[in-house]
Amino acid sequence: MAFPLGKTRKRTLKDIDEWLNPEEIYALIVGKTWPYKERLGFYQKRDRCLMSLYFLTGGRNNEVLKLRKINFDLISDPQFIIIKGMYISKRAKKTIARYGAKVSRRINIRLPLSGRLSPFTILVLDYLDVINNENKLFEFSVRRSHQIIKFVTGKWVHWFRAMCENFYGQVFRDAVKLAKFMGVTNVQSVMAYIPFDEKAYEKDLLERTK
Q1: For residues 37 and 140, what is the distance between their CA atoms, to the nearest angstrom?
Q2: How far is C-alpha 39 from the chain's CA centre?
Q3: How far apart are CA 146 and CA 135, in angstroms?
Q4: Which of 45, 87, 116, 133 has the fewest CB atoms below 10 angstroms from its CB?
C-alpha cells in the first residue's frame, strides 16, 4: 500500500497553542482513521494503540517502536498493565563526547486500568488482543508513524510527549521524578511542567516558620 511522502519541518513546543486534557486527547485519537482499503479494523486498533502509547509513556520514536507484546505484563498487578523493560534512550552530551556512545536504560511503566488514563490503556489492550508475541507491535518506520499521527490528529510525535509531560507534571509535582520518568538528564527541561502548588506552599510556610 502506498502512502504519501513529504518533508515536514521539525515541530517544537512553540508550535503547541493549547494544552489538552486526557479526554480531549482521547477524542483526537479515536476521531479519525486512515482510509485503509483492507483490514480496516486491525489497522485502526494498531494506530490507536500507537498514539495511546506515545501519550501514556511519553516515549520517543525509537522507544515506542521497539516495543513487543512480550514487554506487556497483563497479570502481575490487577490495577495496571505493566510495560516491563521499556527502552529509554537519552543523549548525555558529555558522555557522548567522551565515549562516543549513547546512554540508555530500561524502566517499567504502568498503564492504569482505572481512572482518566484507562481509556488509553483499553486501546492498547484492544491491539494486543489481535497480535502475536513474536513481532514488534509496529512493523513500520518512524516516517510512517509521523504520517499516521499527522493524518489522524493533525499533531506530531513530540506533541504527545509534551502532553504526557504536562499531565504527569501535575501528577508527580516533582521535577526530579518527572525527569526520571521522561528519561531526561536535565531537570530544568521539565520545570515548566511542574505546577505551583499554593496549598502545599501555605502548609510548608506555616509549619516551617513557627
Answers
A1: 18
A2: 26
A3: 21
A4: 133
Residue 12 lies in a domain: no
Vertex 101, ends 98 and 104: CA angle to 5°? 120
pLDDT in single tens digits along all 210 residues of the chain: 444 444 445 555 567 778 899 999 999 999 999 999 999 999 999 999 999 999 999 999 989 999 999 999 999 999 999 999 888 776 545 444 555 555 556 788 999 999 999 999 999 999 999 998 777 899 999 999 999 999 999 999 999 999 999 998 888 888 888 788 777 777 877 777 777 667 666 776 677 666
Residue 109's beta-bridge partner residues?
Answer: 83
Which helix (DSSP H) or strand (DSSP E) does residue 39 occupy? none
Enclosing domain of residue 200: 21-208
**Is residue 4 domain-resident?**
no
Whether 77 maps to a domain, the answer reads: yes
Residue 34 burial (CB count, 10 A): 14
> Grid coordinates standing for 171?
501528577
Cell of 193: 511542567
Quick one: DSSP state of residue 13? Answer: G
- Write the CA distances from 156 to 142, 168, 181, 193, 209, integer angstroms: 11, 19, 20, 19, 47
In sign, the C-alpha dihedral spanning 18, 22, 24, 30 is: positive
> The dihedral of CA 112, 113, 118, 121: what is its sign?
positive
In terms of DSSP bridges, do strands 72-73 and 103-112 run parallel, antiparallel, or are they unpaired?
unpaired
Q: How many domains does the chain have?
A: 1
